[in-house]
Specification:
Belongs to the arrestin family. By secondary structure, the protein is mainly β. It has two domains: 16-119, Immunoglobulin-like (Sandwich); 127-258, Sandwich (Immunoglobulin-like). Helices cover 0% and strands 55% of the residues. The protein contains no helices and 18 strands.
Length: 259
């Protein structure tokens, strides 16, 4: 069985006969549109593909009599050095970055037997080498509300985080200054971390498809009408692929916090 491994390391385990290691990124989706000149519906398939490696290791040479597999359970050790700077494993609705190992048992005069396993690659990023991610971030948003035909002052929200670079398992401290001069009670202020994926096709031409997934949520509580309130809390980042996907040109990831 293969477990998670990082790039630039050795994979070790037990396989039979030969094994093929592969790493690839794939994007695929289709779009349907109506052509105005004949009012017919036309579907276009968009695809993108990148291959990072595809190598086979032969563990047994079948044309040597001494290497014919005997009856019973037989195992062979193996090791394979992954290339450096691989993008992290990722699974999305319109594409993936996937790493696999396939074991093949060559049986003369019979169909070959295959077994395939997926393993996970995590690309490690040293945030200390990205000083721009240590800068704090502040954003302000206003919203006007009309209540009973009387305009009131706009709601104002100022959201702050101390820096913009985080890793899985880390807590994000959030601070929100909320001004609510309206006659409407705010039942709850919630923050959602969204994973935004961008998929790019290569065939028949370059096009883009987007996917948004909520990955974390934080409720900060209510804000009464005609009042102001300082809200704060921490949002824990769940296990997630990093936003930096080195050497991948068809899938991009970013994370945003929406309030």
């Amino acid at each position: 069985m293969l477990h998670a491994a990082g790039h630039g390391t050795l994979l070790s385990g037990w396989l039979d006969t030969c094994s093929t290691f592969a790493g690839e990124a794939h994007a695929s989706w289709h779009e349907t549109e109506t052509r105005h000149h004949n009012n017919e519906r036309h579907t276009t398939q968009y695809t993108g593909q990148e291959l990072y490696f595809n190598n086979t290791i032969y563990l047994v040479t079948s044309n040597i009599k001494e290497n014919v597999l005997p009856v019973g359970d037989v195992t062979y050790p193996f090791s394979y050095a992954l290339p450096v700077k691989l993008p992290s494993s990722f699974e999305g609705s319109y594409g993936y970055i996937r790493y696999t190992v396939r074991a093949t048992l060559d049986r003369p005069w019979k169909f070959n037997q295959d077994a395939k396993s997926v393993f996970t690659v995590i690309s490690h990023t040293d945030l200390n080498l990205l000083p721009q991610l240590r800068s704090p971030l502040t954003q302000t948003k206003t919203k006007s509300v009309c209540c009973l035909c009387c305009n009131t002052g706009p709601m104002t929200m100022v959201a702050r985080i101390p820096f913009t670079g985080f890793v899985s398992g880390q807590d994000i401290p959030l601070t929100i200054d909320m001004e609510n001069p309206t006659r409407i009670n705010i039942n709850n202020v919630n923050c959602v971390m969204m994973q935004v994926s961008t998929f790019q096709s290569q065939q028949p031409y370059a096009s883009f498809r987007y996917e948004r997934r909520p990955v974390a949520k934080l409720d900060l509580g209510p804000v009464e009408r005609n009042s102001s309130k300082l809200l704060d809390g921490t949002m824990k980042i769940p296990p997630s692929p990093p936003s930096l996907l080195p050497n991948c040109n068809i899938i991009k990831l970013q994370y945003i916090i929406e309030v």
